[in-house]
Amino acid sequence: MLVLVVACTRERANSQSASPQWPDSPSHTREARGEGGDSSNREVSWRSLPKDFLHDQKGIWVAFPAQLAKGHYWLPTLAVAAGTAGLIVADPHAMPYFRSHSRNLDDVNDMFDAPITTAEVIVLPASLLVAGYARHDSYQVGTALLAGEAYADSAVVDLAVKAITRRKRPSDVAPGASFNDTFFSGGKSPFKGSSFPSGHAAGAFAVATVVATRYHTHRWVPWAVYGFATAVSLSRITNRSHFPSDVFLGAALGYTLTRYQVLRPR
């Protein structure tokens, strides 16, 4: 992740020397500020962050259901719901493999355990923030703030769904027992013991979507950050912390909340 930040910083410096019309330039146009519909250039500051977060929550919990009631966004919503439902049906058949082969994946799982993956996801926006302030690059600082906003938005939705579904984690299923009937039988707290959806997948894809969108002109950046988010998400299955459906829904939430709410021009 630090290599990615350094490379982004270097490429951004080179691009600034070649063209003065970057989004943090005082002479940038109305379209570059995001007012023309370019979601990659939404402006944000520490002062606006709390208000922006509340605006996001209103959009998620009030505006989006209202739009659904009016017949909008049904196709993508049904696509995510159908994919999640299909994986829920497949979960009891997939997880016995990971239970019986868990020892073969010990080395991989050690690299992607929960504390490490959380730190790896957080270090990217934190590094961008430090690098942005060091270089006086408001665009890079804004990217870090947007990544933090996206992470917080995804965490709120993730915890709300966890609190409702209270799904038992695969690792909590007794050896030899079936992986069926895992909903409404897990821990009472969404912070521990509730599996659906995956908060790590949601957070990783939320941060990745911000960075990939803001640096989409560098073709390798989306591949790097989405590849990292995918690796983090899949590791939650291999170490039996989550079912495949948990990870799929978490990733879908992280991407869609960020792409269509956080990064939407204001």
Walk me through what this model shows.
With 266 residues, the chain is an all-alpha fold. It has one domain. Helices cover 68% and strands 0% of the residues. The protein is globular and about 55 Å long. The protein starts with a helix and ends with a helix. The relative contact order is 0.16.
**DSSP summary, beta strand count:** 0
Task: Give the rounded overall mean pLDDT.
Answer: 83
What spatial form do the alpha-carbon principal axes imply?
globular
Q: Helix and strand succession?
A: HHHHHHHHHH
What is the overall number of helices? Answer: 10
Question: In summary, what is this structure?
Answer:
This protein is mainly α.
Write the layout of secondary structure elements.
Blueprint: H1 2-18, H2 31-35, H3 49-69, H4 74-100, H5 106-111, H6 114-135, H7 138-165, H8 199-214, H9 220-238, H10 244-262
Q: Could you list some keywords that capture this structure?
A:
266 residues; mainly alpha; 10 helices; disordered N terminus
